[in-house]
Amino acid sequence: MRHKLLKLRTDWELKTNKTTRATVPYKQALNVGIIFTVEDKQKHDCVKDFIKKLEHDGKKVQVIEFLPENKENFEFKFDFFTENDFSIWGKITAQNALRFSDAPFDYLFYVDITPNPLILYLLARGKARCRVGRSWVDARPYFEFMIESFNNNQSLVEGMYKYTSQLR
After folding, report:
1. Share of the chain above pLDDT 90, in %
2. Whose CA is closest to 49, among 155, 137, 134?
3. How far is Cα 154 from Cα 50, in angstroms, rounded to an integer?
4. Buried b (16+ CB within 10 A) or exposed e, 16-50
5. What is the pLDDT of residues 110-149, one digit of tens each?
6. Under 8 Å CB-to-CB from 14, ≥6 apart: which residues?
7. Among 147, 112, 113, 117, which Cα is nearest to 132's?
8. For the chain, what is the total number of helices (H) and then of strands (E)?
């Protein structure tokens, strides 16, 4: 029931969010967000490497992760939220996730191969100008820039960096 209400809330956010969306020239982008679901150490390291590249390019990077049950939070390096941070009505209660969602990022990178409905809600309500993620069926409302056909996190991140850094 909780996920059905979350889906309704997400659809409502997609329809009512009035944030101006547009791709931003990479060199002009200053504030970048990264959001992802915790999976394993390899993905954690992949995200850390991505952060280093972006920071090397002069970007201020904020990160938040969704921590599923029975997953390890490696290094406790990033802010995180869990399913317990959503009410029975599908509303997020975690202040760190709300602040992240309200941040006016120039780019918001969603580093998951498989869509996570809890993160999709944050993408729908978010204030990021350009949301970047993997392309899948029905992904269009969540992203301004989609990356095609990457089957692992490393190649997804490489594609995100390669193509967004070329935007003029």
Report:
1. 88
2. 155
3. 9
4. eeeeeeebbebeebebbbbbbbbbeeebbebbeeb
5. 999 999 999 999 999 999 999 999 999 899 999 999 998 6
6. 124, 141, 142
7. 147
8. 5, 6
Distance of CA 131 to the CA centre of its chain: 8
Stated pTM of the model? 0.96
Other C-beta atoms closer than 10 Å to the C-beta of 108 total 27
Which secondary structure element, helix H or strand E, spans residue 158, and what is its range?
A: helix 153-164
Which domains are assigned to the chain?
Answer: 2-17+27-164 (3.40.50)
Rounded to the nearest integer, the mean pLDDT of the chain is: 95
